[in-house]
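User: Fold both of these, please.

Assistant: Here is the first one.
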Amino acid sequence: MATSAGKNNLLPASLVSNLQDVLLRRKSDAGEKGNEEAQQSKSNDDTTELSSSNATGEPDNTKPIVLVTNADGIDSPGLTCLVDALVRHGLYNVYICAPQSDKSLSGHSITQRETVGVSSVEVQGATGYEVSGTPADCISLVVSGALYSWSKPSIVISGINRGSSRGNHMYSSGVVAGAREALLSGIPSISISLNWKNDESQENDFKDAASVSLPLIAAAIRDIEKGVFLKCCLLNVEVPTSPLTNKGFKLTKPSIWRSTPSWKAIPANRNPADGRFPANQQSLGIQLAQLGRDASAAGAARRLATQKKDIEEVESVGVARKSDPNRAVKYFRLELLDNELEDSGDDLDFRAVQNGLVAVTPLSLSQHVAQEIETAASDWISNALQAED
C-alpha cells in the first residue's frame, strides 16, 4: 500500500520537467534581480559618498579657490552680494570665513587670551564658517589649516564693507586688516568698501558694488594663475556712493582723510541689552565679565580639534584680574562724523571717490617701496582693465 501510495504521488515526467524549467528561470530571475539591487545599492552608496564629499566642501581642482571675509559680519548684505556674484560667475571655488558680528573698526587685532568659537554656515551656495573673532582671526584660522582641507586660497577678497576704508581709516579698518593678514601669509588679496551715505545709500547698492568690482577681481585671479599679479601689496578698492554711475577706475594714493571721532556719554540706566548695565546692575555685569575671564584662564593653551555640532573651539590662556565691585563705571559711544579734506590732490583716494571714481589704492607692508609699488600697480591695472574690455 505504501508502495502504491508512493507510486500515486509520483508526478508525470513531463510535469516535473516543466516545473524544473520554471524553478530554474525563477532562480535566474532572482539572481539577476539581486545583481540589479546590488548594483543599485552600490550606485546609491556612490551617490551618498559623493554627496558626503561635496558636503565637506572639497574644492574642484580645476577652479581657483576664492576665500571671502569681511568686517561687517557674516549676515551683512555686502558679503552676501559679493558671494552671490562670485558663485554666479561659476568659475571659482568660493569659501567664506567671516566674523560672527560687526568688527568694522577692529583694525588688525587678533584674539589671543579668549576662546574663539567657529560655526559652519552656508551663504548663497558657498560653504564657510562664522567666527567669534576678528577678520584677521578668520584669515589666520584658515591659513593655519584648522578649518579646511586646504590652507592657502588663490586669493582673499575682503568685503564689501559698509562705509569708507580710505585715508587714515585703513589703520582701524577691519576689512583692510582681513586683506592685510592674507598678504602677510603670502596670499594675494583685495579689500572692497562702499562709500555708504546714510541719507542716500540703499542695500541694493551692495549688489551694484559687487557687479562693479567683479571685472577687477576676475582680472586679478586670471593674472594670479599666470603668476604676474602684484606680490608686494594688496589692493584697497573703494566704490563711490552710486556704484552704477561711477566714472571708471583710478589708481590712487592713500590720503590723510579721517572722520572726526565724537564720543557721546551714555546714561548708566540704559538698556543692558545694548551692552551697558544699569547702575543697580553694575556689580552683576562686572561679575559676569570676571566669570568670563576666569573661564578663559582655566583653559590650557590648546586647540580643541574635536567638532561638536559643527562647532570648533580654539582655546588659550587668559589672565584673570580681580575686580572692585565699588568701582564706578561710565559708558560712552563713538560716532564718526564726516568732514572734508582740504587741498587734496586728484590722485588721492578721498578725492577720487568724491569725484565718482572707483579708487584702487595699493597698500604695501613696507613704506620704503611705495614708488615701485605705484608703478607696478599702475601698469597692472591698465593692462587688466584693457583685457577685460
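And the second sequence with its predicted structure:
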Amino acid sequence: MSTSSQNPRTRSSTGNNSRPSSKDGPKKNIWSSMLDSAATGKRLPEKNLLILGGTPESQREFLEAYSADTSDSSTSNEKRKGKLPPVANQFALGYTYLDVLDADQEDTLARVSAYLLSEPSLSFAPLLKPLFTPQSISETSVVILLDWSDPWTWVRRLREWVRLLRHVLISLDDETKVVMEENMTQWRERKKGIDTTSTGSQAASSGAVVIGPGEWDEGLGVPLCVVCQGTDKMEKLEREHGWHEEEFDFIHQFMRTLLVKHGASLIYTKPFQANNLHSVLHSSLGIHSLLKKLSLKAQFIERDKILIPTNWDSWAKIRVIREGSNLEGISTAWSIEIQDPPEPLTNGNDEAQEEGTAEEDDGTSAVNIYEQTIKDPKRSTSIAYPGSQQGRNKIEVDTTDMQGFLTKQLEVLEQLKIEDEKDRAAKKAPQLEMSPLEDNSRVNEHIGPVQFNMGGIQVDADDMLQKIKDREANRSQRKDPVSSPGDEKAHNQALANFFAGLVKKPGGSPRGSPSV
C-alpha cells in the first residue's frame, strides 16, 4: 500500500515539475527571436565617407554644409545649420559620424562614418588601408576638398591625393580588388540618380552609358567627388588679382578634363547657399529617400554654381567651354603623372616646381601646363591670359599705413643723421692756406671783367659797383652826426642870447613897435 501510494505521488510531482519547464522554454525562445528581428529591422545602413584635403576648419565647414538642410533656398541660415557631432581632425586620421535624415527630418536613412585626412603623405597610407574591405567597398565614397583661396594649387593637390589613393588601392588583397573592379563596372554601366532630361540623349534614358575618349581611363575603384569650396572668394580674385572670365573658364575646363578620367563628379559650393551637395553624396553612397526622389541636373552656365554629376561629362561637352584646348595632351600627361608615389606639398609651390621632373621642365606635365596659366600671385605679380605669355598688372596695390610708413622713415633719417655726425667727427675739414675770396686779384685773373649790355651801352659791372659804393659813402658823410647832450645845451643858450640881445639893443625899438 505504501508503495502504491508513493508511485502516484511521485508521478504527480514529476508532472508538476515538467509543466513549468515546458512552458518557460518556448516562451524564452519566442522573446529572443522577436528582439533579434526588431534589432535587425532598426539597424541603420552603414556608409563610409573618406574626406581628403583642406584644413581642419574647411573640413568642419564641409561637414556643416553636408549636415545642414540646403535644399531649399528659402530656408534661413540658422535653420539650415545642422547639429554636428564632435569632430576629431587635428591630428592624423580624423573621425566623426553623421545621421542622414529623410526629407521630413524625422526618419534616419543611414549613418555615415566620416574619416578626415589633411595631408597626402605616404605615412598615412596604413591608416587608410583598413577602410577598404570587400564588404565596405560598395558603401564607400571619397571626397577631395579644394578651396578658392588658392586655385593655383588645385591640380598639384589633386595629383598627390590621386597618387596616395592609387598607392593604397594597389596594396589591397586580390579579393578586394575584384570587388572594386565590379563596383566600377556597375558605375560605368548606369547613370545613377541623374536627371536624364539634362543630357538630352536617348542612351541616357535607356540607362546605357557610351564610354567616349578620355572617360573612365583611370578608375579608382570607388566613387570620387571633388568639392571646390568658397565660391564667394571669386570676387576677391577679380578685385585684387585682375582675374577675368578667361581664368575661371580655364580652371573649369581643366578640372573637368582630369576628373572625367576617374569618372568623378565636380561641384562648387558656397557657405549657407542652396546647393546639390546632399544629392551628389547620397548618389555616390547609395542613399535613397522614400519621400523625395533623387534628381541631379548638370549646371555649367553660372560660374559659381558648377555641378557635373558622374557619368554625365564628355570631351565634346568640355570643348564647348574654350576652343583650342589640347584635351588629348592633358589627359595623356595626367595618366603618366599619377603613376608615381605622392610628394609632399610645399607652400607657394616654389620648391616643388624647382625640383620638378623632366616632363614638367619641358612643359608636357599637366601640373606645369596648369600652373603656367594660373600663377601664384606670391611668386608673380601678374597672371597671364590663357594661351599667352604676357602678364597683366594688378588692379589694386596694397599700401602700408601712413603712420607706420612715417615711423619707419623717421628711424631711417635718425640713423642717417647719426652716421653723418660720425663722419664729420672722423673727417675734419681741411685748412686752406689762402681763401680765394680774399684775393680778388687772383680771381679776376681767372674770371676777367664782367660786362653787360644796358640799353645799347656796354657797362662794366665792377665800375658800376664801385660807383654805387662811393655814392653811398658820400651820403653817409653828409648826414649830421648825432649830437651829444652838451652840444644841444650850448646851442640852445646861444639862441637865447641872440634873442635877448635884440630886445635890449640901445637906441632901437623892438620890431613892430610904433615910432615916436
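The chain has a mean pLDDT of 76.
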